[in-house]
Every structure is written in C-alpha cells, then in structure tokens.
Design goal:
DNA-binding; 12 helices; homodimer; alpha/beta; about 350 residues
Chain lengths: ~350, ~350
DNA sequence: GATAAACAAGTTATCGTTAACATAAATTTT
DNA sequence: AAAATTTATGTTAACGATAACTTGTTTATC
C-alpha cells in the first residue's frame, strides 16, 4: 500500500467546492468566512487529515518563525537550562526552536549550522566551543545576512551579539575564596588553549593569584592531553580525574584546586578520595556551573553558579530584535555576573 | 541599513548570463556544465554569497532529508547518547537531525511535534514520556502519514515502530542481584503510575520479589508526590532524596534500594549519608542507566547499563526504512538487553 | 561519412501556500 | 433609496528551486 500523498489546500477546496483561498482563510483564521462554509471546510480538513505544508508556507511568507540553537554538549545541565530558557522566550513570541548538536568537530559545527540555515531558520543562536573551521563557516552565514547571537564563546563580528557569564570574575572569586581560606598552593584543572569560557576562568584564577602575590606554579595548572575539540563533553569527569591524579603525583601537591566545571570537579574528587585524602581538610575543591548534582556530591560542592536561564533569555531576546529590525548597527554585549555558592568541599 | 534580500538562483543566473537551471546544476553538482561556465557561476555564487532557499527546495523535492527527534529531558546523558547515535546514523545517510525538547507537559509535546511536522520533516522519533494529550496528537500525525518511531515509551499503533531497553528484565536483575546478596527488605524509589519505562522497572522489581517468595511491602515502594509530568527531569535527584528520606523514616527501613535511575540513586545516596549510614554495609543501592558519573559517586554506583547508542541507531534505521518504502505493514519492535554493572554501592 | 552517444545548455511547468487584488452580495449608515 | 461599509468569496501571481523535457553542439563509433 503506497503512502497516500498528504492532502493539500486544493484537495480540501475541491471536496468542499470552494476556492483554495477560502480554505487557507479557515486554516489561518484570518479574513472573512461564513460560519456555514467554515464548518464544512473544518469537516473536510479533519476527514482528509489535512496538515499544511510548512515548506510552501515558509517559501511564500519568507520567514519560518523558527530559530536554530547549536549546542556543543547537551548532556550538561547548563545546556538544558539554556535551551529551556531560549525555548520559553521564543515560544512566548510564537517562535519555535530547533536544536542541533555538534559534539566533536568543526565538521559537525558546519553540518549543524548548515542544516539549520538550509531550512531557512530566521536566526541562529550558537553556543558551541569556538573552532577555526566552524567560525569561518559561521562568518559566511552571518555575512549572508542570517541574524546570529552567540552565547559564552568567542566570535567577534559587528553583526553578532554576544552574551556570556563573567567567567573571568567567576574564576577570580572562586580562587579568591580559596586564598581567603588560607590556601597558597592552588591547582587549576581543565586548562585549555582554545578561547572558550574556561580560558577566562583560568585567567581569573591567574589574576587572583597575582593580586594576592602568590607566584604561579605552572605544574599546578593542568589540562587534558588531547586537543579539547576531540573530547566529548560529558567525559570531563575523566579530565578532572586525570588532572587531579597528575597534581597528586607532584612532589608538592596543591592544598586546593579550582576545576573548570562541576563535572571536572567531580572527577577530581574521585581521584582525591582514591588517594585517601579528605575533602576539604587535605584538599579543598571548587567547581563551576552549580549543576543540580553539586549538592549531592560528598561533600557537597562549592561552585560558581551561572545565571543560565537569564543567558538563554537574553540571547533569545536579542536575536528576536535583530530579526525584527535591521537597524542594529553595533555588536551588543551582555556579560552577566555569577555567584559563588559555598558548600562543604571548601569549608 | 535594511537587510538586503538573499540572492536567488535567478540573481546568480542574471549576473553570469545563463539560465537559472544551469546555476542549479552547478550548485547541486549534477547534470552537464562546462568547466568555463561552472567557474563563472561559482565565482558569482561566492560574490553574491548565495545560500539556497531550503523551503523552496524542499517544496519542489517533496522531501527534506531531515528528521525530528523529540526528547523529554535533555540533561540526562541517556538522551545525549541517544541523540548522538541518531545523528550519526542519519548523517551517514545524508539526513540531518533537528531536536526539540518538551520537558513539562502535553502542551509542549504538541508544540514540539507540531513545529517539526510544520517544517515537513521526513519522519519523527519520539522519546518523550507518554501522556494523553501528546499521544492523541501524535496519533493524528501518524495518521496523516508521517513516519514515526518511538523509543522507550508506550505508543501502540500499527504504523509506529518501537525500540526500547528491556526495562522489565533490567529491574528484575537489579533486584535479583540485591536478593542474591542476602537482602530481604528491598525498597523501590521513583515509582510512577504513568506507563513509562520506570513502570517496567518497578514490575521487574516486583517480579523478582515474587519469584524469590519475598512478600511485597507497599511502604517500601515510593514515588514522587507530585504528578510526574510536572517534574523536570534533572530534579530526579530530589525525588531520590525525598523518597529515601521517607524510607528511612519507616519503623523498619529497607537494607537495600533499587532506584529508577542513576540520578534518583544519587539523591538517595545523599539521604543515606545524611543519616550516617554506610553504603553498602547498612543500605545497598542500585541505579539504572549507567551515566558517566556513576563511577564517580562515593561509593561507585552499581547500576543497569542501557545500550543507548544501539537504541538510537536502531530507531534511526527503522525510521529511514519507513521513509524509503511504504510497504512496512506491521509494527516492528526491538527490545534490547541491558547489563548489570556491579560496583561498590552493593558489594 | 553517417549514426549514435555524450555534452552543454535553455524552456516549461510545478511543488503548496498565500498576499494582493477583484468581485459581488449583505448589511449598515446617511 | 442611495451611498458607504462590511462580509464572503474568487482570481491571479508570485515565493525559489528543480524535474522533465527540448534543442543544439561536440565527440566517439562503426
């Protein structure tokens, strides 16, 4: 049994005996239709199981009322919150959201962005890690006049708005908290060379050390061995675990560590416990993000909370503005504050 | 500065001085085009920053080579793995993937499915929790001939394939493992009345008790107080925590618990530790899913691993088959085995 | 050298929907 | 009762891309 072709407006019109336009008016609930006609049309719509063809509609209307969100790692609650905030904001304005994931490479970034653009989304929010190939492609897209907003990642372009947490300040405060507690040998876990948010966190760490006149010991700053772009996001527990192992094997290990995010911190905690050291008595630890599980680690994790919901909301609002008016001349930036949440992994 | 309209095939054709069809042939790399013409066209494409209009193309071709995936809770690594497997499988066949999330309600389910269908996706994979409103809408969609596959959720329909883990067996084996260790008072955390996968896990639990002639004590089976559909996915640590608190307050608390998933188990572990009880000596605990963090809990969590990647892959393959041929008469079902991973939370 | 095959374009019609315009009847206002 | 307005429908022409067909030219084959 071949799949029967979906009914079109004309099919409905033919069975009812009206013009396609009349059916369109019923479907879209605009224009004048008599009650009698409307009912007959509605009947036919139901019977033939009509579903309007989005491509045709989008083509005619020259907009899709859909925006695309490109995420790197969706298993992080950070992404979830972000996505939800974006969806809520859009939904309130009648837009829908398609999410694409690009977990590994520039190739996937390009594929994801390409797929969305090919479906004529009205705009794009990009929250992946920056990478050369992906950024070049994104630049092309921007220059073909697709409205774009980026979240928490580098992308300098006059037509692209930017929203992020103040990762520098967050890193600074996390480190200062440890310094305030008397720590002088403080490690950093999860350093990367790419210009993402964790680089800012590392800079915050360095800034705090500098301000408190604590010399930087490069051996205390550790990152994944592989290029970060090769590592799927949720394996960062592994990075934390391995990084901590390396720090513990030093002749003079740190008394406190700041991990680039909570997953990394959790991996590090495992390594610490395996060495039969106590948290925070022997080694204190601070994470970043405040994922829901942070209250459930043993001990509960001190961490820096990001305003994820607000990030998503702002990004969506800026994008909608860009879509509505073409008159935004300048790149707009929002850098939001984050909040240190002190739990038992440090005190 | 008004946003200039994107260039069309005809624009390119006009600047080069050829027919639009020739440009189309260059863009799509099919048909004959002389080397000279091709180069001139490519030049113009680049200069005018041409990007083809997906809506027009999809309309003409009557297919989009895109499929939609509706997920409930994306913050669970389970979803991530699933989504990745689906994407990989599709990508190998030239399809792209749009993900929609519907975290809370039937309304959002409908919105998500609707958005995807309105964009004329070629098929749909639905992995949300079953609910009345959503299911009714999904039925309409299926009956308007959109190919659909569901993952790990109830949906009986002749035209809808189904793939899932054997949650019943998983629940059975988790419970039997506890029984084998000598436990007789075994609790269940996270029971729900809706017909999702966790119901099957509960049934597996009950089956194991029955088989080993252990009487069921209803007070040992606990679930969230609110209707499950109101609870965002990642707060299941909370459900686990609260459920365990309730079990611990019983006059005769269990010596082991089986939690409906790893997040719930993690919440339960927190509650156990707060009561100064030891895991597994005082209370043993088993989770479900084997999320990456399960090795990092203290102690490492015994759990039931789902073949998430395979689930996604199978779902995608079945869907692609349905899209290609209309001759699949029967609902197809794949129920995959899961694997008990024994760690330190039980032994 | 004649015929067939491959190549390089152009032409036409259409996918399904809807904006814009046109027409005509019913209703209200003057 | 005439004019103005509202209501109810129909007609036409795109939106941008492309499948299918046609035309003409070059190259290969017998």
């Amino acid at each position: 049994m071949p799949r029967k072709k979906p009914a079109t407006l004309s099919d409905i019109a033919a069975t009812v005996g009206v013009a396609p336009m009349t059916v369109s008016r019923v479907v879209n609930q605009n224009g004048y239709v008599s009650e009698r006609t409307r009912e007959r049309v509605l009947q036919a719509l139901k019977e033939l199981n009509y579903r309007r063809n989005g491509s045709a509609r989008n083509l005619k209307r020259q907009c899709t009322e859909t925006i695309g969100l490109v995420l790197g790692d969706i298993s992080n609650p950070y992404s979830t919150e972000l996505a939800n905030a974006v969806r809520e904001t859009l939904s309130a304005r009648g837009f829908s959201l398609f999410i694409c994931i690009s977990e590994h490479s520039a190739k996937e970034d390009i594929a994801a962005i390409g797929a969305l653009v090919n479906h004529s989304v009205d705009g794009l929010i990009v929250a992946t890690r920056s990478n050369k190939g992906g950024d070049e492609y994104l630049k092309e897209i921007v220059e073909s006049n697709v409205p774009v907003v980026v979240i928490g990642r580098d992308f300098q372009h006059a037509d692209v708005d930017f929203v992020s947490t103040d990762n520098l300040l967050g890193g600074f405060e996390a480190t200062r908290h440890l310094i305030d507690l008397g720590h002088r040998r403080i490690g950093f876990i999860g350093a990367t060379l790419s210009g993402g948010s964790s680089l800012k966190r590392l800079q915050g760490y360095l800034k705090a050390l500098e301000q408190y006149k604590i010399p930087v010991d490069e051996r205390l700053v550790t990152g994944p061995k592989e290029a970060i772009s090769e590592v799927p996001g949720y394996s960062t527990e592994k990075i934390g675990y391995e990084g901590m192992k390396r720090l513990l094997s030093l002749p003079n290990p740190p008394t406190a560590v700041f991990a680039r995010n909570d997953f990394t911190a959790i991996g590090a905690m495992t390594a610490i416990k395996e060495s039969n050291l106590r948290i925070p008595e022997d080694i204190a630890i601070v994470g970043f993000d405040d994922i829901p599980i942070a209250v459930h680690t043993a001990p509960a994790l001190t961490t820096v909370r990001q305003p994820m919901h607000l990030l998503g909301q702002l990004a969506a609002e800026m994008l909608l503005e860009r879509i509505k008016t073409d008159e935004i001349e300048e790149r707009r930036e929002h850098i939001l504050n984050c909040e240190l949440i002190i739990r038992n992994s440090t005190v």
